Amino acid sequence: MQLIDGKSLAKKVQDNVAKEVEELKQVKNIVPGLAVLLIGDDPASHAYVKMKAKACEKVGFYSITHNMPETISQDEIIATIEMMNANPRIDGILVQLPLPKHIDTDRILEVIDPKKDVDGFHAYNVGRLVTGLDSFVACTPLGVMKMFEEYEIDLQGKDVCVVGASNIVGKPMASLLLNANATVTVTHIFTKDLKAHTSAADIVVVGVGVPGLIKEDMVKEGAIVIDIGINRIEDGSLVGDVDFKNVAPKCSYITPVPGGVGPMTIAMLLSNTLKSAKKRV
Ligand code: NAD
Q1: pLDDT value at position 190?
Q2: CATH for 30-120?
Q3: Pick from 97, 44, 94, 37: which is nearest to 69 by CA?
Q4: Taking Cα atoms as reference points, which of 142, 148, 137 lies closest to residue 114?
Q5: What is the mean pLDDT of the chain?
Q6: Closest CA relative to residue 261, chosen from 227, 238, 233
Q7: What is the pTM of this model?
Q8: What is the tens place of the pLDDT at every residue in 62-119?
Q9: Which percentage of the chain shows pLDDT scores above 90?
């Protein structure tokens, strides 16, 4: 069994981004810029945004966080996004989810200029991803693809079971895998027999938010298991969606939680923002 070390790979990606930022500054006098909209008081969202701002600083980006109260109106959020769309110093706009209940998330995400949609959530980018065109791709599934590339895991013709079908994790993950010529099965809460699908797969990619959902008898010998789940359990520790202790011995490769997919998400956000900055005219 080999551990897929997301922490080291994320550092490698970030170091490369920092190097390219330096070149971009020297050659074209461009400093990539990321704007983050943070709405409300959710502690997890605040923690994620803090980590993103720190990462931006480390690679030499310009970054701003718009901190807005829970009670803010949809129109005010839209006005801020439009201001960022028009700001030439900003290459990427990220709206930290989830949004308060009175805000229409789909509406908000569609206001972001697709050229600055570094989270890859805009329908324009989702459509381009599905059709196999160059696009901004959601950072978490993009990070998983980077892991496959780094560990030289060939996806062509492989049976891959994706567990979880959200717009930000499971669906873009399935599209990326399909584009890489894997045979993809997407499962979710209404799947009749989850074990039948996971245990037949060469690769299982799980992102559902249920601690320990994937058990030892649900994966085949030699499987590759990618755990996207991040769950804080009663004792305060972070665990994934895979019963790591019992599943790991059966795997050829597996990602740990923490230190697996998590760090890759921020690394890919930086990489997407750099990609956008390079397209400045
Ligand atoms: P979500 O609630 O939007 O979607 C969950 C998906 O899992 C749904 O499709 C649902 O049908 C499915 N599901 C739920 N329970 C299931 C079950 N018992 N069996 C099969 N399918 C089930 O969640 P999300 O935003 O996609 O996040 C999923 C997990 O991934 C969470 O733990 C989240 O914290 C984590 N996550 C991690 C990162 C990262 O950077 N590593 C990024 C985003 C999300």
Answers
A1: 98
A2: 3.40.50.10860
A3: 37
A4: 137
A5: 97
A6: 227
A7: 0.98
A8: 999 999 999 999 999 999 999 999 999 999 999 999 999 999 999 999 999 999 999 9
A9: 100
Which residue among 106, 147, 169 is best mutated to probe the pocket of ligand 1, counting the most ligand atoms within 8 A of its Cβ?
169
Please write down the HEC assignment for all residues of 174-200.
HHHHHHCCCEEEEECCCCCCHHHHHCC
Sheet with 62-68: strands ordered across: 62-68, 33-39, 92-95
**Domain ranges, ordered by start, for the chain:** 30-120, 139-262
Radius of gyration of the chain (CA): 19
Residue 87 Cβ inside 6 Å of ligand 1? The answer reads no
Q: Which atom of ligand 1 is nearest to the CA of 169?
A: 26
Q: How many CB atoms lie within 10 A of CB 193?
A: 9
Residue 218 near ligand 1, beta carbon < 6 Å:
no
Q: Residue 29: in which H helix or E strand, if any? A: none
CATH architecture of the domain 139-262 equals: 3-Layer(aba) Sandwich (3.40)
Kindly report, residue by residue over 2-20, the tens digit of the pLDDT.
999 999 999 999 999 999 9
30-120 shares its CATH topology with 139-262? yes
Alpha-carbon span 155 to 145, nearest angstrom? 10
Contact, 38 vs 70, CB < 8 A? no
Record the tokens describing residue 114, joined without a space. Answer: 């697709």
